[in-house]
């Protein structure tokens, strides 16, 4: 295990301390040491945006706390859902009296813990809604969307939900916009090497030298096939062949393209992949409106990448264009 | 005897904590095969936090299970935090206000656990989860009572059914939770939740027998 850490069981707590020190202009502690919030949260007059999940996905989830983005985040152990109490404390930290939308990914633990937190919030008179991201195409067939997990598409859901809340949308409008964002979003990943949870000490799955896991999940969940590593252009073709027909994305659609590294793939390679993806989109007449290329949603030191595409309409465009400031995503007014 | 006193029952929780602590590595190892290898770490963490809380504020068995439930639900997270949190809150609720637990009371508490878990999880027998241990164990206990068995005999039947339930998960393909993403590749390994549930039921059965 090649890691810059102190004690394996303290990585999450020490990472949080460092994060708060580094970004005290944007994030602040709360009365729960595993819940961070935007320094100005709860923002008066605005619907609160909450998310949360296991650690190890930097900059997700805490990196998306910020202005016109996420108001509070529940921070779990590595790859493990935060308990209900943390989600509930995040709701409290985000609630300015206008209700709170919990926007998170479809994982068994998160589903149960969010459900219990929502029960608690309702008992305490806080209006809460949820949107569950399920953008990962290879994780289940299109006929079973409820089984699909949420991956990097969550970032676009937070961006849209955060913007809608900042524009003054009420809880139902914010929820509907975030739901539309994820409904219009599809993702797919490839993994080239595994990752190691510090406290476990060895990789919890293997990818053989020269092979890649096609459709890998954010915790190393196997995908739909193991194949020899292919050229970037072939990987781009595989990804778009899965993603484009699934929505489907059509000629003249305007889209957001997000390519995220999984942790240890050089950014250079992400741009090579991006170039190949956009060539294919060009051939199919799909128009790129906005692009993000970088380490937006990682899986410790896994290597590989995810491709996420979101189809835009006027509302989603205005939300994506809206100014935002967070560690993971800064958006200046666009167009 | 056909019943045990709640006031003397804290030993059931005490021995349960030790059982989980001593099986930490085993649980993490089997979880590592098809999960992320942290089941033992998280269970050990929750049960050890419960030990510390009970050292500060000891009580009867209902209190011990209530404490364990609160810690698992509030502090542990993952899937196992809420599932075992509900598991022990159902037991605690069944025992609160009682002075003695007889075999019928114990059956009712197991049935309360099944009902409570059914509210937060859609897992059914055959899905390769802790339900594959719990459900046959509860059925075996009920059957033993129906056939006129003693508390102690019913506990033995429950333990036996829990073990074969746990082992039955080896040949199953996971249909729920993270391992379900593995499809066929989840076959051939015991489910970590089924294994921890078996440890819990085995430990409770052997402790209660000491009290009877």
Describe this structure in words.
The complex is a heterodimer of chains A (335) and B (212). Chain A folds into two domains: 8-183, Dihydroxyacetone kinase, domain 1 (Rossmann fold), CATH 3.40.50.10440; 185-331, Hypothetical Protein Tm841, Chain: A,domain 3, CATH 3.30.1180.20. Helix content of chain A is 32%, strand content 25%. In chain A, strands 1-2-5-3-6-7 form a six-stranded mixed sheet, with helices on both faces. Chain A has a six-stranded mixed sheet with strand order 10-9-8-13-11-12. Chain A has helices at residues 11-22, 84-94, 108-123, 153-166, 171-183, 232-246, 267-283, 314-321; strands at residues 27-29, 35-38, 48-55, 66-67, 72-78, 100-105, 128-133, 185-193, 211-214, 225-228, 254-261, 287-294, 303-311, 324-326, 330-331. Chain A is built from eight helices and 15 strands. Chain B has one domain (3-211): DhaL domain (Serine Threonine Protein Phosphatase 5, Tetratricopeptide repeat, Alpha Horseshoe), CATH 1.25.40.340. Chain B contains nine helices and two strands. Chain B has helices at residues 10-22, 24-34, 39-56, 61-76, 80-95, 103-120, 131-146, 151-168, 192-211; strands at 3-5, 100-102. The model of chain B has no long low-confidence stretch (mean pLDDT 93). Classes of the chains: A alpha/beta (335), B mainly alpha (212). The A-B interface holds A 9, 76-86, 107-109, 112-113, 115-116, 139, 147, 149, 197, 199-200, 204, 217, 219-222 and B 28, 32, 35-38, 41-42, 73-83, 120-121, 176-178, 180-183, 185.
Give the SSE map.
The complex is a heterodimer of chains A (335) and B (212).
Chain A: H1 11-22, E1 27-29, E2 35-38, E3 48-55, E4 66-67, E5 72-78, H2 84-94, E6 100-105, H3 108-123, E7 128-133, H4 153-166, H5 171-183, E8 185-193, E9 211-214, E10 225-228, H6 232-246, E11 254-261, H7 267-283, E12 287-294, E13 303-311, H8 314-321, E14 324-326, E15 330-331
Parallel strand pairs in A: 3-5, 3-6, 6-7, 11-12
Antiparallel strand pairs in A: 1-2, 2-5, 4-14, 8-9, 8-13, 9-10, 11-13, 14-15
Chain B: E1 3-5, H1 10-22, H2 24-34, H3 39-56, H4 61-76, H5 80-95, E2 100-102, H6 103-120, H7 131-146, H8 151-168, H9 192-211
Antiparallel strand pairs in B: 1-2
Helix pairs in contact in B: 1-3, 1-4, 1-9, 2-3, 2-9, 3-4, 4-5, 5-6, 6-7, 7-8, 7-9, 8-9
């Amino acid at each position: 295990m090649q890691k810059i850490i102190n004690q394996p069981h303290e990585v999450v707590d020490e990472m949080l301390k460092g994060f708060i020190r580094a970004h005290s202009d944007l994030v602040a502690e709360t009365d729960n040491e595993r819940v961070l919030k935007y320094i100005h949260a709860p923002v008066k007059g605005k619907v609160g945006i909450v998310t949360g999940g296991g650690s190890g996905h930097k900059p997700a989830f805490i990196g998306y706390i910020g202005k016109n983005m996420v108001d509070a985040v529940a921070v779990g152990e590595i790859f493990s859902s935060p308990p209900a109490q943390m989600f509930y404390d995040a709701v409290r930290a985000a609630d300015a009296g206008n209700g709170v939308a919990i926007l998170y990914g479809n994982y068994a633990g998160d589903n149960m813990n969010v459900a219990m937190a929502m029960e608690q919030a309702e008992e305490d008179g806080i209006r809460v809604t949820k949107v569950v991201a399920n953008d990962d195409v290879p994780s289940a067939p299109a006929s079973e969307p409820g089984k699909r997990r949420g991956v990097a598409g969550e970032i676009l859901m937070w961006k849209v939900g955060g913007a809608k809340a900042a524009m003054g949308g009420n809880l139902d409008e914010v929820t509907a916009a975030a739901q539309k964002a994820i409904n219009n979003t599809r993702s797919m990943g490839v993994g080239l090497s595994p990752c190691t949870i510090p406290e476990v000490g060895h990789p919890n799955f293997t990818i053989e030298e020269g092979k890649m896991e096609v459709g890998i999940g954010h915790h190393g969940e196997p995908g739909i096939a193991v194949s020899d590593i292919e050229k970037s252009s072939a990987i781009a073709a595989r990804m778009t062949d899965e993603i484009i027909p699934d929505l489907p994305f059509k000629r003249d659609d305007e889209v957001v393209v997000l390519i995220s590294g999984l942790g240890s793939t050089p950014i250079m390679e992400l741009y090579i992949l991006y170039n190949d993806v956009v060539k294919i989109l060009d051939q199919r007449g799909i128009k790129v409106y906005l692009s993000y290329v970088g380490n937006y949603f990682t899986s410790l030191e896994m290597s590989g990448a995810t491709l996420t595409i979101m189809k835009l309409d006027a509302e989603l465009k205005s939300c994506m264009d809206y100014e935002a400031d967070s560690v993971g995503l800064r958006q200046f007014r666009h167009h | 005897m056909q019943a045990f006193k709640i006031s003397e029952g804290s030993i059931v929780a005490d021995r349960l904590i030790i059982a989980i602590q001593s099986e930490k590595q085993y649980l993490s190892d089997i979880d590592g095969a098809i999960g992320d290898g942290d089941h033992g770490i998280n269970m050990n963490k929750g049960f050890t936090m419960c030990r510390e809380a009970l050292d500060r504020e000891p009580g009867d068995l209902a209190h011990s299970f209530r404490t364990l439930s609160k810690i698992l639900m509030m502090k542990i997270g993952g899937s196992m935090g809420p599932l075992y949190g509900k598991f022990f809150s159902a037991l605690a609720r069944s025992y609160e206000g009682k002075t003695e637990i007889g075999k019928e009371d114990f059956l009712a508490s197991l049935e309360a656990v099944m009902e409570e878990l059914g509210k937060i999880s859609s897992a059914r027998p055959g899905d390769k989860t802790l339900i594959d241990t719990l459900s046959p164990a509860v059925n075996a206990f009920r059957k033993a009572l129906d056939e006129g068995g003693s508390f102690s005999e019913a506990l033995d039947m429950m333990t036996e059914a829990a073990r074969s339930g746990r082992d039955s998960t080896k040949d199953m393909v996971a249909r729920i939770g993270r391992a379900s993403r593995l499809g066929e590749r989840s076959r051939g390994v015991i489910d970590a939740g089924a294994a921890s549930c078996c440890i819990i039921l085995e430990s409770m059965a052997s402790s209660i027998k000491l009290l009877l």
